Amino acid sequence: MAYAGEVPKPRFRPGMLIYDTRYRSLTIQLIVLVLFAFGLSWLINNVIVNLAAKDRTFDFGFLWNRAGYDINQTLIPYTNDSTHGRALFVGLVNTLVVAALGCFLATVLGVIIGVLRLSKNWLIGRLMTVYVEVFRNIPLLLWILLSFVILTETTPSPRDFRVTDEMIAAGQAPAARMFLNDSVAITNRGMNVPAPLFTRSLGTAGIGEFQISLNFLAIFAVIGASAIVNRRMVRRARALQEDTGVRPVTWWKSLLVLFVPVIALMLALGFHLEYPRMTRFNFSGGIEVLHSFTALLIALVLYTAAFIAEIVRAGILAIPRGQTEAAFALGLRPGRTMSLIILPQALRVIIPPLISQYLNLTKNTSLAIAVSYMDLRGTLGGVTLNQTGKELECMLLMMLIYLTISLMIASVMNIYNSSVRLKER
Amino acid sequence: MKKSLFFGTLAAAGALAGFASADTLADIKARGELLCGTNTGLTGFAAPDANGVYQGFDVAVCKAIAAAVLGDATKVRYVPTTGETRFTALASGEVDLLVRNSTWTFSRDTDLKFDFVAVNYYDGQGFMVKKDLGVSSAKELDGATVCIQTGTTTELNLADFFKANNISYTPVTVADDSEAQRQYVAGACDAYTTDASGLAATRATLPDAENHIILPEIISKEPLGPVVRHGDNNWGDIVRWTFYALVAAEELGITSANVNEIGTSTVNPEIKRILGTEGDMGAMMGLDAEWAKRAIAANGNYGEIFAANIGESTPIGLARGLNAQWTQGGLMYAPPFR
Question: Strand B191-195 vs strand B144-149: parallel, antiparallel, or unpaired?
Fold first, then answer.
């Protein structure tokens, strides 16, 4: 019996690109890729043509020019003689400060509210529900404006603090008083708090324009060292307890290790507080926390905390009821059950959506424009853009910076996420 | 993918910039309406009146140009712009010209690729404070909080002035005049600084105007004028000469009352040339012979516009000062119509 020859390989025909399912998806992908590349090149060409038509160049040289404008909150040294590039960094630092503080406080508040919303106490549970629904269903911009208006309209103007000689003679008190033993003043412009100063300062260190105060660095180093020593001590106490059943008394040693070195260092540096005092128009001395900053922070925290609360609640509800019951059966009290059994397991559900809330909060800081807080949008995307007229460059740079910040937050949080998720081996 | 995403945003940003045509005059005629970038609201210069119609000193320039180009002073669409958005609006072609008390500076003229075709108001930057603050000079403002419109030359002048006098201040940046006024009245700042004309206009709208004073220092030169884009010289010429027709009209005694008959009754050849009864000046710019006649008829000559909107008989009460005709000791000086 003669076998037919080998099965002939199907010859490739162009029609197979459409009718053969093996090739069809490739065809479609190729077409979409070509269309995408075409659209992209059209857009880039559009930019080039329009820039040429307006006789404009595309360069970032303006970042090295003198900025010439002043910024009301500068956490790194800046004067109007500094460059636009430095103004960018001033704005970036202002953005990061709000974002970092906001993420931290929103997490704390969000976890508390999320846990309380599950409370068996009817009143607390309902109150938290009302909080969540009210804050997450009203646009953030309105909350920012509302908190700014409340802060500026309900507080006295700086001149109300002034005490003139005639007032002393007449025995009159000024219309407004400072708080906390005359150390904190809240005006309709900001909050003036005492500033820490060092008489025997260590100075600063850094590269070029970027300087870090050595005093604070030393203090942080000592606090860190104290914390490590304290932790080791507690660990040793625990080991001893497991060996012998008797836990040595550690609380006074902990206090000693944690506080004495720092206090000694601060005394050595000549730490003292500079109190704000009234001058002709405003308080000077001390640190002024502008209401634009406070209002933005409060609104961001309250708004984002509502979302985080829901994430936390979802995370807790995702843990089977049996876990709680098992913990109770072992004799753990509800508080310990929550902190030792439920929350650690809930974290792996909580963290991924939490990342996107952090990203949201960071990006939402750009709403600072509503209250004239000089963040990145206010410096680079506001005054610099206007004074130099480099719209395209400023906008692209700003987008790139926000993108970088977001990607960095996401990658750090992803590392944390992989460290807390269930280990599968 | 990240890279292509980046270029995509780059290109999208560019696409938003839109297309600016090279022949503005043809565009306006085809559209049948002039797009004029104005202030969002500065009483006397550009602000909607009780009927929602824009009125003011800057608006009058827009009307005159619409009358010259389209034959109808009402065919203007006013695009309110803030100090921050105005130049982007002009550069992107969103408006045909900007008459928004914008200061003529070197970098705006060259680097931003604009042309300041004329100066319709010679101004300078001043400060307004509450009277009970007891300040009589801007040099006493050491440590004060100052409200300042962002994106303006005044922002930079302010920094320079305080630096030159070795005193300090806290800036509060605001987007436009109305926000500045709100902040100033609320006491969020001790002083408000902008062009002296703007201060006068703001002060006029305050309910307790007598409790606010404008300090004597004028700390800068602010020549304010209409702006067009680089690259369309004919359109720039039309704006420039329409404005100068208004200035020349005041000098030559052409008013809204006599503009219709003086062209034939006069013996002055320059008046005849301006009003189109002699020569063909309009044709040289692509307009008809009576362009200037319509421009003057729209709101009157420069002096009439000044008196009606911001002059001493209005609540704003600005004196002519630098803005008087050169024959009266001012700087308003129209080049010859020849």
Answer: parallel
What is the C-alpha separation between A222 and A216, in angstroms, rounded? 10
pLDDT at B300 over 70: yes
Rounded CA-CA distance B196/B318 in Å is 9
**Is residue A230 less than 8 Å (CB to CB) from chain B?**
no
Cα-only R_g, chain A: 30
Q: At what angle do helices A343-364 and A84-117 cross, to 10 degrees?
A: 140
User: Any CB–CB contact under 8 A between A388 and chain B?
Assistant: yes
Report the SS3 class of residue A213: strand
Residue B336, class by beta-carbon neighbours within 10 Å (0-12 exposed, 13-18 middle, 19+ buried)?
exposed
For chain A, the structural domain boundaries read 19-53, 195-274
CA-CA distances (angstroms) from residue B212 to A294, B205, B240? 30, 11, 37
**By CA distance, what is B188's nearest residue in A?**
A189
Residues in chain B with CB shorter than 8 Å from the CB of A36 are 4
Q: Kindly indicate the confidence band of residue A208, based on its pLDDT and cuts at 50, 70 and 90.
A: low
Asked if residue A17 lies in contact with residue A27, where contact means CB atoms within 8 angstroms, the answer is yes
Among A416-420, B19-23, B34-38, the least confident range: B19-23
Q: Provide the whole-model pTM.
A: 0.82
Chain A residue numbers touching B159 (CB-CB < 8 A): 68-70, 80
pLDDT in tens, A370-398: 888 999 998 998 889 888 888 889 999 99
Do A40 and B8 make contact, defined as CB atoms within 8 angstroms? yes
Question: Which of the residue ranges A5-9, A66-70, B129-133 would you say has the lowest mean pLDDT?
Answer: A5-9
CA atoms within 13 A on the CB side of B255: 8
Give CA separation, B326 vs B247, B255, B268, B315, B335, in Å: 10, 18, 19, 26, 11
Q: Which of A44, A47, A54 sits opposite B91 (nearest CB)?
A: A54
3 state SS of B218: coil
B49 and B55 Cβ atoms separated by less than 8 Å: yes
Contacts of A282 in chain B (CB under 8 A): 143-145, 170, 190
Cα(B165)–Cα(B168) distance, integer angstroms: 9
| CA pair distance A129, A114, nearest whole angstrom | 9
- Are the C-beta atoms of residues A59 and A71 closer than 8 Å to each other? no
B124: closest CA among B2, B7, B215?
B215
Per-residue pLDDT tens for A246-292?
888 888 888 888 888 888 888 888 888 888 888 888 888 788 899 99
Q: What does the block give as tokens for B161?
A: 């002035």
| The pLDDT of residue A248 | 81
- CA distances B128 to A317, B40, B155, B203, Å, are 60, 21, 15, 8
Q: Residues, chain A, total?
A: 425
Q: What would the pLDDT profile of A317-345 be if each residue is shown by its tens digit?
A: 999 999 999 999 999 998 889 888 888 88
DSSP state of A200: T
Which residues does chain B have within 8 Å of residue A72's beta carbon, measured at their own beta carbons? 170-173
- B222-229/B97-103 β-pairing: antiparallel
Per the rule left: phi > 0, alpha: psi between -120 and 50, beta: everything else, A68 is left
Domains of chain B with bracketed CATH: 18-122+223-328 (3.40.190.10), 125-220 (3.40.190.10)
| Exposed/middle/buried for residue A374 (C-beta within 10 Å: 0-12, 13-18, 19+) | buried
Q: Is the ipTM of this complex over 0.90?
A: no
List phi, psi (to 5°) of B268.
-70, 115
Neighbours of A150 (CB within 10 A): 13
If you measure CA to CA, which chain A residue comes closest to B83?
A: A386
Q: Position B134: which residue type?
A: G
Mean of all residue pLDDT scores within chain B: 88
Of A56, A281, A282, the CB nearest to B113: A56
Binary contact (A72, B170; C-beta < 8 A): yes
